[in-house]
Amino acid sequence: MAFKTKDLSVLAYANGFTLWHYVTGDLAAEVDTAGYFNAASDMLRVGDMIMANLDADGTPQAGILLVASNSGGTVDVANLTQVGASNSD
């Protein structure tokens, strides 16, 4: 799959920082690859965080992505910091 701008939305904005939400059927290994978010390079700033719901149509993952760089239209996010990784029922 590929990045879809319609699936990226603002949760909060303050002091030059934006907290985003993104949902996709893509896997973390695809989403945290440099260039995945290039279509949103005009909106994403270094230091912004993206709350991500990934593999939404498979085995869901959730986590936080940090916009690590955005230069010349190429966006790179740090690897997913996963939340809710285990469930000890």
Kindly describe this structure.
With 89 residues, this protein is mainly β. The chain has one domain. It has one helix and six strands. Strands 1, 2, 3, 4, 5 and 6 form a six-stranded mixed beta sheet that branches. The model has no long low-confidence stretch (mean pLDDT 93).
Short description:
By secondary structure, the protein is mainly β. The chain has one helix spanning 28-31, and strands at residues 8-14, 17-23, 49-54, 61-71, 74-77, 81-83. 4% of the residues lie in helices and 43% in strands.
State the helicity in percent bands: under 10%
Beta fraction: 35-45%
Shape, please?
globular
What is the count of DSSP helices, taking H or I runs of 4+ residues?
1
The overall number of domains is 1
Q: Whole-Å distance between the termini?
A: 33 Å
Q: Which blocks of ≥5 consecutive residues have pLDDT under 50?
A: none
Output the keywords.
single chain; 89 residues; mainly beta; six-stranded mixed beta sheet; 1 helix; 4% helix
Secondary structure blueprint with pairings:
Layout: E1 8-14, E2 17-23, H1 28-31, E3 49-54, E4 61-71, E5 74-77, E6 81-83
Parallel strand pairs: 2-3
Antiparallel strand pairs: 1-2, 3-4, 4-5, 4-6
